[in-house]
């Protein structure tokens, strides 16, 4: 409709000009042609829209069809999503719907769906992609040594185990203060310790030794760097070993209260038992010391000793109490 | 406030003060006038209207639907136990949203989604096709470089364009 009226104006212009001079004619004609060009180059020909557009405005480009239409069935998906990117609705050929449906409706479609954008997607981690990753990583890997095929062998060759944690978080900083903590674990049985050295080591170490698994664990976090903490842990281990072998002068003053285990020899229990037995037996059977030695070698006295030692070391449990009861009965023939 | 008091009132107060020689406490005995509280939530809620307002899925669901029908617009690990930096990430998010709203003015079809992958900031947005593609490319490059320099970490923009907004319902 608009183009028709424009044409009419053109003709009108020409007829009007016929009576005037040449200059005016040319002016009028140029004005008319300029107007003509303007009207057709506007946006979709809407007159009110065209008022806003300036001279020489390019027509709006139509968006092409989505890529999903052109995807062959046997395409290489790893080249569509080579790395982690957000969900692109016109690059994923699946008819996915996401969202809570409107009443008597369906979940919204994938085009323009923000919910699909929000969630992390794993479209870049298909099995084919992971195979490619593995193939690419293979040249950088070395074989596990074939001699270390069991856990026991690993423990035998590498008794000291050092553990530390690295932390990753979403933020511009890589630093995390908890990354400096180092745990050092070693089995005490691997150490060359005699009785005194072992006892001293256990006393020095205290809480850090676990009796059930025979593992000494040293945890260091006092230094600001992991390297420093690791070296401090190694230093501690060395010092503990050497110190436990040394015998200081004041160690001779070890009393019965310092002993780790209960020993029946020279204890109150032994004295009491022997006194009771002596009183039970007929007096004057010989020298005191001889009699005591003979009594000690008796089997029921040995049983009693075992039961008392067990009670004191392991604590009072059902079986240990029963054992003690039996031993006492045997000694006193009850 | 002082101007609203009448001069006679002022004089009376002053005389009272002079007479009783009370400390400044008497000056602060002004009453507080409170109206009844309207216990109504109004955060991020668009109320029902005539039925001609188009709403996106994001606008149509109220904030209590987050984790039920809506996801989170911003994802980072700082809210986990033992991880620090949650406040800094939130401030960054707020700034990035305002920045995107201003840079791509009138072109945003929906809210901006911010993801953090390790060090990298990924800003995902849905845009309307209001600008020619060259302008979009320029604005994307400008935003990426400016934000990277500002936050000292790689910033990537994932822009998708739509013809018009995806309407969920009309309220």
UniProtKB/TrEMBL annotation, chain A:
Residues 61-72 have a biased composition (Basic and acidic residues). It comes from the Eukaryota. One of its GO terms (cellular component) is ribosome. InterPro entries: Ribosomal_mS35_mit, Ribosomal_mS35_mt. Keywords: Ribonucleoprotein, Ribosomal protein. Residues 159-245 form the Small ribosomal subunit protein mS35 mitochondrial conserved domain. PANTHER family: MITOCHONDRIAL 28S RIBOSOMAL PROTEIN S28, SMALL RIBOSOMAL SUBUNIT PROTEIN MS35. This is 28S ribosomal protein S35, mitochondrial. It comes from Ameca splendens. The lineage of its organism: Eukaryota, Metazoa, Chordata, Craniata, Vertebrata.
From TrEMBL, chain B:
It comes from Ameca splendens. This is 28S ribosomal protein S24, mitochondrial. InterPro entries: Ribosomal_uS3m. Belongs to the universal ribosomal protein uS3 family. Pfam families: MRP-S24. GO terms for cellular component: ribosome. It is found in: Mitochondrion. Keywords: Mitochondrion, Ribonucleoprotein, Ribosomal protein, Transit peptide. The gene is MRPS24.
């Amino acid at each position: 409709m608009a183009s028709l009226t424009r044409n009419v104006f053109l003709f009108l212009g020409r007829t009007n000009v016929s009576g005037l001079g040449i200059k005016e004619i040319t002016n009028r004609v140029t004005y008319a042609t300029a107007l003509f060009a303007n009207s057709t180059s506007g946006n979709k020909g809407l007159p009110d829209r065209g008022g806003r557009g300036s001279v020489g405005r390019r027509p709006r480009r139509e968006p092409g069809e989505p890529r999903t239409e052109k995807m062959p069935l046997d395409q290489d998906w790893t080249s569509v999503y080579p790395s982690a990117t957000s969900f692109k609705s016109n690059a994923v050929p699946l008819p996915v719907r996401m969202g809570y449906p409107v009443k008597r409706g369906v979940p919204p479609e994938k085009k323009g769906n923000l919910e699909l954008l929000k969630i992390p997607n794993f479209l870049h981690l298909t099995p084919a992609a992971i195979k490619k990753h593995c193939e690419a990583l293979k040249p950088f890997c070395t074989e596990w040594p074939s001699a270390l095929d069991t856990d026991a062998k690993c423990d035998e060759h590498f008794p000291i185990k050092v553990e530390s944690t690295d932390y990753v978080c979403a933020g511009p900083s890589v630093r995390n203060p908890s990354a400096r903590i180092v745990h050092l674990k070693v089995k005490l049985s691997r150490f060359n310790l005699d009785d005194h050295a072992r006892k001293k080591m256990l006393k020095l170490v205290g809480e850090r030794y676990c009796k059930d698994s025979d593992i000494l664990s040293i945890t260091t976090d006092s230094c600001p760097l992991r390297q420093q903490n690791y070296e401090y842990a190694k230093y501690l281990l060395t010092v503990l070993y050497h110190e436990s072998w040394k015998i200081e002068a004041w160690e001779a003053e070890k009393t019965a209260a310092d002993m780790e285990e209960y020993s029946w020899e020279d204890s109150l229990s032994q004295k009491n038992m022997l006194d009771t037995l002596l009183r039970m037996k007929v007096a004057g059977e010989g020298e005191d010391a001889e009699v005591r030695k003979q009594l000690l070698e008796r089997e029921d006295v040995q049983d009693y000793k075992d039961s008392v030692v067990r009670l004191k070391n392991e604590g009072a449990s059902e079986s240990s109490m029963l054992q003690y009861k039996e031993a006492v009965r045997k000694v006193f023939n009850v | 406030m002082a101007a609203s008091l009448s001069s006679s009132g002022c004089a009376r107060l002053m005389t009272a003060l002079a007479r009783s020689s009370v400390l400044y406490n008497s000056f602060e005995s002004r009453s507080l006038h409170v109206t009844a509280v309207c216990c109504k939530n109004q955060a991020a809620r668009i109320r029902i209207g005539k039925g001609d307002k188009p709403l996106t899925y994001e606008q149509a669901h109220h904030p209590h639907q987050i984790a039920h029908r809506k996801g989170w617009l911003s994802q980072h690990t700082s809210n986990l136990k033992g991880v620090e930096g949650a406040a800094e990430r939130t401030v960054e998010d707020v700034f990035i949203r305002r920045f995107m709203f201003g840079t791509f003015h009138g072109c945003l079809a929906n809210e901006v989604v911010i993801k953090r992958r390790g060090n990298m900031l990924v800003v995902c947005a849905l845009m309307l096709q209001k600008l020619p593609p060259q302008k979009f490319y320029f604005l994307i490059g400008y935003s990426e470089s400016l934000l990277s320099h500002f936050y000292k970490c790689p910033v990537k923009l994932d822009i998708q364009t739509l013809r018009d907004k995806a309407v969920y319902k009309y309220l």
